[in-house]
Amino acid sequence: MKSINILVFSIISFLFTTTVFAQDLSDQEIGFDEARVINSLREYGVTDPEGLTIEIERKREMFKVRYLEMKKKKQEILEKIELEQNTKKRLHRNVAVDIPQSEKDALLAIYNSTNGANWKNNKGWDFNKPVTSWNGGIGWYGVTVVNGHVVKLSLSRNSLSGILPPEIGQLKYLTFLDLERSGVSGSIPKEIGQLENLHFVDARYNGLTGSIPAEIGQLKKLSSIALGRNGLTGSIPVEFYNLTALSSLSLAYNKLSGTLLPDVNKLINLTHLDFENNDISGSIPLQIGELNKLQYLGLDMNKLTGSIPDEIYNLQSLTTLMLDYNGLDGTISSKINKLKNLRTLILYANKLTGSIPPEIGQLDNLVELQLGVNQLTGFIPKEIGLLKNIVRLYLDRNQLTGTIPKEIEMLTKLRFFGLDYNQLTGTLPPGLKDLTNLYNMDVSNNFLEGSVPDLRHINTLGIISNKFRFIDFASEFSLYKTKMSRYNFKYNSQKKTDTAKTTTARIGGSITLTMCEDGRFTPDDTFQWYKNNAIISGATSREYALTDLKNTDAGTYFCRSYHTTNPDMSPLILEREPIQLNVINCTPIVGVIKVVR
To answer: What is this structure's pTM?
Structure first.
């Protein structure tokens, strides 16, 4: 996919709910590294400044979603663990609260190897005193002790510096390990496989390197592991597939390679699988279709090839399917309608062919559909209009033909709409003016023409390189100019008007050349004729008459039309197809010469 040169027009992926809109989450809080994302996007062919800006926003929103999802998952697991631990407390009220020396040694090793003296918060970490739970500013920061054992260690965002020591394996009763954005680096010690009671691990957004130790496969109680946004390399250990209690597995944004093994079907409790932005290759194993609890499948930005297996359509609990930026080929199966719970379907930037199956209209819960940057052909199915919950619809950069179905007017929740770089003809559905939630629309680089509906409620509108004329939106132009900047209303330039022709006339005769032969122009339009790419002085009318023709009048003529009522925005420039004028010495004879022998 690195050969794709993508100009993405305002793609903002919808995994998020209204909760995301309501929260102002900073890049630092969600762990969004813009520079790193830009580098990744460039590797996949997003190179132009505008495309990068827009795709960055899409990724930023995705980070928000994943941040909120992980936060929710973390809280759910923590509540479950605390419930179990509270039960144990009640059952062992008389057990003395103290930790074994081996566990205290482990904490000391962690403290020393990560520069504990300079942690953001190291309150209570006095190894001359008993280890007690952190509670309201009292005790050991980030430590929870239950029945004399360390069960929880939470040092996220605490400015650790250094590696995790092998002694971490001595915390035998640890159930919860949170090192998100803690600052740890180096390799993951294989001794982590000794934490037999571990339920939850979050070590995202750190500087971890090397391969993932196979010993993690020994953690039979592990229900969630998140190692994303590090520098981990190598393949996914086959031992991972032994973690049958695992419900969430996130390894996104690393440098992992290798393939997905058929053994993935052993992860029978998996609900969340996120391998985004790695170097995983090969095909999607058929066995992935056996994960009937799976709700989130993110394999985007890898090097996957082959077709989308039909078995994937057996995942009827699936709400999010993200396979974008790979090398997948084949068609989109009509079996897509089996994914009734699907809210997000992103197959963007692959090599998919064939038509868009009309069955896609049966996905009632779909909020986002991205099929852009593929090789899809045929018409846009009218069944698209049945997607009553759709907010983001991107079919851009394919080879779609025909007209925009009128049924689009039924998508009352539609907010982002991209059909640019196709071969669509006809007019824009007039009912688009009634889609009051529509915020961003791009239909550039098609063959659309005719009146542009009143879209003054839109923030960003792109109609570049179609067959529109200024007359098609003249009545709304002043409103567009007031509401949108020149960068948000993209209309210049358009495809050439009229049709190319060759005309032959005799010396001494006359001929009139015309632009906008269909009469569609405004009184404010100005014109300039050219001959052989040179301006013809004084030829500033829609029609250019040549009389008393001479041999020197022969040549290639075209006309440009301008509308200059918008000095603060680039004027709309139209150019007609060329007219090749041949001038001959006599009246041409038209007919058939019959030779009789």
So the answer is: 0.87
